[in-house]
Amino acid sequence: MSKKIVFLDRDGVINEYPGDGLYVLSKEQLRVFPYAGESIRRLKEAGYLVYIISNQACVSKGLISVEALKDMTGYLLSSLEQGQELIDGVYYCTHREEENCPYRKPSPALILEALRTCGISKDELNSSSFFIGDSLRDVKAAKAANLKSIIVLSGRESIERKDSWEVKPDYIFKDLKEAVDFIVKNPKD
């Protein structure tokens, strides 16, 4: 039986993008979009597994500890879930680009690791499986994992730069809410 999964980037998708070269370094800086929890809840109600896949090089740069990142993630999940389990897993690559970590997006390795962990092969994904991100890295990771790619314009990328994008997403939406509206209204299973 095929599975429906949505992978989400964190910054710029679930919470406000801190800006190029900047990082969210504490739960006080983590500004979750007001529609994020409800949007993820709608995905779960529609039968999707939901995973967060994010590069967080701030750890290897020494700006935040692994423990502080875990604490912030716990805070994020409690803010989103409000007592209801909505996120099936969170996977971070904490390395800088120059460290050539095989798990850093645009590599699909974190996506594939999440699939392995929950016992799903790439072949079991159906045409209703997506990666929602705010950067071309996310689009590349989605395509490499054979997922539909969605760029949301609530973070790093802007529609004004669309003509210069080296890789094109399957869909473009204003934000996570709009992307989820599309996904749940257009089931393909």
SSE layout:
Layout: E1 5-8, H1 36-45, E2 49-55, H2 66-81, E3 89-93, H3 109-117, E4 130-133, H4 136-144, E5 148-152, E6 171-173, H5 176-185
Parallel strand pairs: 1-2, 1-4, 2-3, 4-5, 5-6
Helix pairs in contact: 1-5
Short description:
By secondary structure, the protein is of the alpha/beta class. The chain is 29% helix and 15% strand. It has helices at 36-45, 66-81, 109-117, 136-144, 176-185, and strands at residues 5-8, 49-55, 89-93, 130-133, 148-152, 171-173.
Describe the model.
With 189 residues, this protein is an alpha/beta fold. The protein is built from 5 helices and 6 strands, in the order βαβαβαβαββα. The radius of gyration is 15 Å and the shape is globular.
Described by the principal axes of the CA atoms, the overall outline is: globular
Strand order of the largest sheet: 3-2-1-4-5-6
* Tally of separate helices: 5
Major β-sheet profile: 6 strands, parallel
Strand content: 5-15%
CATH class: Alpha Beta
Number of strand segments:
6
What's the CATH architecture name? 3-Layer(aba) Sandwich
Structural domain count: 1
Helicity level, as a percent range? Answer: 25-40%
State the low-pLDDT regions, or none.
Answer: none
Helix and strand run:
EHEHEHEHEEH
Distance between the termini: 10 Å
Please name the CATH topology.
Answer: Rossmann fold
Name of the CATH homologous superfamily: HAD superfamily/HAD-like
Average pLDDT confidence is: 94
Radius of gyration: 15 Å
